[in-house]
Design the sequence.
């Protein structure tokens, strides 16, 4: 019999982890929802963001919470270049070509990471003590709590950007109907550039946050890509609230699965939930089930 | 002044001397009489993980092998050619590399890579080719027993030796202070299950309470549930055999969850120097069982250290553990070839089966299935302290060993 304290601890840990999963998934969801491409390199962009934060921390001692902004900036620029140089030739040309380009990019990023930094796992220090708050029913780890709060702020900022800025409204209009948006005078090519840049910047932010909790090596990209996919499907493509809820569900289900079935089944449980949602509610918990053209 | 080549005990010194004399006399018979030839080259093939997930250990393995090759060239009256390639930490690449090396060269022997996954792949190839195979970092016993190995030999502590060494380390703690609650984190792999069984049975027989035995997935990034379970079960001694990234992740999360056991042994996980570069002081006190640890004495340890510092121009007092582990393998190869008196595969295999070997990890022979003879092999346990791995068990008089540090203080007091 599993003690109640263990259950509540697992739920708390899952919620705190779910926030980062949501940030990791948000960029993927945005790019998928607006550009109709599956960014297979998203996990590897996250890995790059993590390494930026780790290297800045190693070189200067600056906390990854600050390094995160540098990671976001670099990946924002990378997203612009990627769209203008590579993806503009293949977006809208069917599903296969962008997938092949992005799969190749993932392999290139992984190999560059390995070549430059080796295969060793690296981590950064949040710069706050490893203790936390004892709530009685669960222990609230301070590093996890801080990263969760930052993750929620990032998600809120993305929502506000899409909701209240002209560019955000143009992005949403493009997501709803790109032809109509074009007829209304929206420069959809520019919107694609901005969307990809924001998506990759969010991957960079998620990587920086993850680097404070988990060691990073050049191979982590695939595993986080899988988790991001699961969150997007759970929450529904394009839904920011859905992404947050999906992230939390994934985090909690992973932790409870590990508790009841053993750590070896952590990912199995989350993937079963993912498959269940695909079967029963393929548009996701908060997805519209339609959209596009 | 400490002499690194001083014996661990008078008895082992006498046994070692007698054994060395026997091997030397055999070698003398073989070579002085010209029976083994003297002008043909001994060609050894091998791979090391210089890239990929085990890359942090590749250089150490290579260095140990190269120092051993140099020693073999000095000791054997024939050229010793060592062909090492990067297996990229991948079993498929390893197999392709070995295939390519053996196709283009007259290979006499194969040396293994790192980890049960890669060493088993190399071993399977060698068994198929009927070539003697030596592998370290390969604690998994089951393949030796189930696959009827004929050519594979592991001069390395196996799961049962690791469990024995854990018990020995615990016995260094005064009885009144000795912990009783043992937790085992079991990777969901064949070796994970095997090692957990040995720990549970061996320590259970000695009266320790196994209060937790839980599995986790290799490659897992989140140990928070296991940490909560361990805390809840009041685990005092935590034992596991994770991969190095897994071990580092686990300790990181123990710190952020403000929980630590009183004794932590991460076999293989705490082997590489990446442990300290990733964790720093948070990695202190961790125990490992890597096959060789600075602080071991006798059987060429002093010579190994001198060769290492001279060849690689380092002032470092503490050699990486896998240099010693792979050098130990080369000592077995040297003595087997000397005893065989030729480079014939069957003669070397017979020598591996019948001889006793003196290496930097002690004196031991092999069982027919290639396992080190039960009880022969000392499984040295190291402990991370002040940025270096030092010998914690067994006790020696080297200043590279330390008095086993116990208990691990809480995070707030470190």
Sequence:
């Amino acid at each position: 019999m599993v003690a109640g304290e263990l259950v509540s601890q697992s739920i708390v840990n899952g919620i705190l982890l779910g926030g980062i999963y949501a940030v990791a998934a948000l960029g993927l969801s945005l790019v998928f929802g607006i550009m109709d491409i599956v960014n297979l390199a998203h996990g590897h962009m996250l890995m790059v963001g993590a390494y930026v934060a780790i290297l800045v921390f190693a070189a200067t001692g600056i906390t990854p919470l600050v390094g995160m902004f540098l990671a976001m900036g670099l990946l924002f620029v990378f997203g612009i270049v990627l769209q203008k140089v590579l993806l503009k030739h293949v977006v809208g040309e069917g599903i296969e070509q962008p997938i092949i380009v992005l799969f190749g990019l993932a392999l290139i990023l992984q190999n560059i990471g390995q070549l430059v930094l080796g295969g060793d796992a690296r981590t950064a220090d949040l710069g706050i003590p490893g203790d936390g708050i004892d709530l009685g029913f669960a222990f609230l780890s301070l590093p996890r709590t801080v990263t969760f709060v930052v993750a929620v702020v990032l998600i809120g900022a993305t929502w506000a950007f899409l909701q209240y800025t002209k560019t955000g409204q143009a992005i949403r209009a493009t997501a709803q109907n790109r032809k109509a948006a074009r007829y209304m005078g929206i420069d959809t090519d520019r919107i694609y550039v901005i969307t990809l840049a924001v998506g990759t910047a969010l991957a960079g932010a998620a990587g920086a946050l993850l680097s404070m909790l988990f060691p990073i090596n050049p191979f982590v990209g695939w595993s986080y890509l899988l988790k991001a996919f699961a969150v997007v499907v759970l929450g529904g493509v394009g839904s920011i609230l859905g992404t947050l809820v999906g992230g939390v569900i994934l985090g909690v289900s992973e932790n409870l699965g590990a508790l009841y079935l053993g750590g070896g089944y952590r990912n199995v449980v989350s993937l079963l939930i993912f498959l269940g949602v695909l079967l029963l509610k393929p548009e996701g918990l908060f997805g519209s089930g339609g959209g596009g053209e | 002044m400490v002499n690194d080549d001083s014996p661990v005990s008078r008895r082992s010194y006498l046994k070692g001397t007698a054994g060395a004399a026997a091997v030397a006399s055999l070698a003398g018979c073989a070579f002085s009489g010209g029976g083994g030839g003297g002008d043909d080259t001994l060609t050894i093939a091998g791979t090391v993980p210089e890239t990929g997930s085990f890359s942090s250990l590749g250089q150490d393995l290579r260095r140990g092998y190269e120092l051993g090759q140099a020693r073999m060239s000095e000791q054997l009256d024939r050229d010793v050619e060592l062909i090492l390639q990067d297996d990229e930490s991948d079993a498929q690449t390893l197999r392709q590399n070995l295939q390519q090396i053996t196709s283009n060269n007259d290979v006499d022997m194969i040396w293994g890579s790192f980890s049960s996954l890669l060493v088993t792949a190399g071993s399977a190839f060698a068994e198929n080719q009927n070539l003697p195979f030596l592998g370290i970092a390969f604690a998994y016993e089951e393949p030796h027993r189930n696959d009827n190995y004929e050519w594979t030999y592991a001069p390395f502590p196996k799961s049962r030796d690791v469990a024995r060494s854990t018990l020995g380390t615990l016995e260094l703690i005064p009885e009144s202070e000795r912990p009783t609650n043992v937790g085992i984190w079991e990777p969901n792999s064949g070796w994970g299950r095997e090692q957990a069984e040995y720990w549970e049975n061996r320590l259970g027989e000695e009266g320790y309470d196994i209060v937790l035995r839980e599995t986790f997935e290799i490659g897992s990034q989140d140990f928070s549930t296991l940490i909560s379970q361990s805390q809840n079960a009041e685990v005092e001694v935590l034992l596991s055999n994770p991969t190095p990234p897994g071990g580092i992740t686990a300790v990181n999360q123990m710190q952020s969850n403000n929980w630590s056991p009183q004794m932590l042994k991460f076999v293989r996980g705490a082997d590489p120097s990446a442990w300290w570069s990733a964790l720093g002081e948070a990695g202190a006190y961790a125990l490992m069982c890597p096959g060789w640890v600075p602080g071991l004495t006798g059987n060429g340890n002093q010579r190994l250290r001198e060769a290492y510092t001279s060849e690689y121009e380092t002032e470092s007092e503490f050699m990486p553990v896998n240099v010693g582990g792979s050098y130990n393998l080369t000592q077995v190869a040297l003595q087997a070839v000397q005893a065989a008196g030729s480079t014939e595969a069957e003669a070397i295999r017979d020598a591996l089966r019948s001889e006793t070997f003196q290496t930097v990890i002690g004196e031991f022979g092999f069982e027919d299935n290639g396992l080190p003879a039960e009880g022969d092999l000392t499984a040295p346990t190291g402990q991370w302290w002040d940025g270096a791995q030092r010998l914690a068990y067994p006790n020696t008089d080297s200043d590279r060993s330390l008095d086993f540090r116990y208990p691990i203080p809480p995070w707030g007091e470190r």
Remarks:
- Chain A touches chain B at residues 3, 5-6, 9-10, 13, 17, 114, 118-123, 130-132, 139, 141-144, 213-215, 217, 219-220, 223, 254-255, 258-259, 262-267 (CB under 8 Å).
- The mean pLDDT of chain A is 87.
- The two ends of chain A are 52 Å apart (CA to CA).
